[in-house]
Amino acid sequence: MALSAAKPLIRRHTEIGIFLIGAILIVIFASTSDGRWANLYNIGTIMQVTATLGLMSLGVAIVIGTGEIDISVGSTFGMGALAHLWLAARVDPVFAALAAIVVGAAIGYVNGWLVTRTRTPSLIITLGTLMIFRGIAIALTDGFSFSIPYAARNGWTYFLLGGGDVFGFNTALFWLIAAFAVLLVVLKAMPFGNRLLAVGGSADSAHSRGVRVDRIKLSAFVICGILAAFAGALEAGKLGFADGSMGRLMELQAIASCVLGGCLLAGGRISLIGALMGAFVLSSIQSYLVVTGVQPQWFILILGLIVVGAAYGDKSLRNWAIRK
Amino acid sequence: MSAIVEMRNITKHFGHVIALAGVSFDVKAGECHCLLGDNGAGKSTFIKIMSGVYKPSGGEVLVEGTPTLFQSPRDAMAAGIATVYQDLAMIPLMSVSRNFWMGREPERGVWPFRTFDTAKADDITVKEMRKMGISLRGPDQAVGTLSGGERQTVAIARAVYFGAKVLILDEPTSALGVRQTANVLSTIDRVRKQGIGVVFITHNVRHALAVGDRFTVLNRGQTLGTAERGTVDAAALQDMMAGGQELALLEASLGGTI
Questions:
Q1: pTM above 0.90, yes or no
Q2: Nearest C-alpha of chain B: how many angstroms from A322?
Q3: Domain ranges of chain B
Q4: Which of A131, B78, B218, B236 has the most CB atoms lying inside 10 A of its own CB?
Q5: Could you give the ipTM of this predicted complex?
């Protein structure tokens, strides 16, 4: 049978499932929304959401690759957004974005340092830092929001950092593509990538071969923090304002994107393109529910149901591929 | 001939638990020195000290006559001590080539654009594996698809390629079938003939006698002496490992050698 020829391909490439699910959903969404979903403006919006969620998912995927998890990215995103906005109102957005990256790297360093020093599961450490940095974000904004005055929302650096569109797509999308390309090279063609997956595949094994496991894990957390905070900066650049709750619950979407995209939560195998596709699928579902006018109280419920359905579909596909 | 690595009177405590109570052991170039002991005798702890994973509580480690303190497995590897662990030699999800080069990837280009030279890595991996008598489907074959014996052989080939002077094998045959065991034992012989000192850890007396030049038995953290090849037989080694008495009774009731 022709279908069974696809089995080895599915076994090798864990991200095929999310691509199939994505394709099915696109067809369903396009045909049932009366043109409200599949138009250039809406696709542009989806890509903007995908860009920020995707940057975050790439970072989470790197951490998942080492066998750890970072659920503090939602707060890191918020901190990055606030750092960017606070400075962008005063200096050039380039320095504001750099400051956001430094904030993200610092949060990532704190996470990585705590995880590697205390040998405590990263789930609980980053759950703690999720709350800590959310608390700081809310305290900083004092319940109000940071914003850039309209007069300051110009200049090409503002435009490049999420504040403008190129070919109908927000500039954040191009940052995502750049980050994806760099990480793909690092992962596939650099010693660091080999060591990262080795640490996730078996930390003891990697340690016995002289790989500095703690250093690799720490780097992964720092990369993740940088990407999440930079995503926050781009989102802030797009909106021009942010309050202390920016990025709330995004950490869960990022993890869902990675897992749907074929990253093993146990570590050792990740797919960056799969994580991006996962982010795209989640953004598409949200957009579909918005444009079809689903009532807000049902929104999160239906999103959850579709995620569970997608996860189940992906699992079934893989089980089918494993069967001889 | 002097020893490449000599361990003198090594002790190791974990809290109140005494894992090793003064063990001495050495390995010379081109010999296979078997370290025998039952489960819990302290074999694993001992070789982890030898390979830099643990630091000893007391005693000395001498590398080519010089007292050395290993801070990490990296130090031990730099001194030419390579260890192949029974369970953590390989990462099943990764390819043979990536496993082979894990932690020591060949690089190409100029920093920060230095990349993993996969072409060179793949080429050398296939060649080295062929030398050990294993023909791969390809260097990108996942280690998870290899048999247990082949995995051990990949790990041994890797250690030899990276210039091991001493090769520590932790229970390389314990999970293997008869034929795969024979393959691993012949690999040990091949490695020894290249002038590498092999430390072969096992609790199987027959496997030890098949390739060993010298035999040291550990029992409850203590060594019961080292014997040369030809001066001991299987029964004597078995006795030392189990502490004699009880096993003799058991053997009598079962009517044969265990």
A1: no
A2: 14
A3: 5-92+147-254, 94-141
A4: B218
A5: 0.71
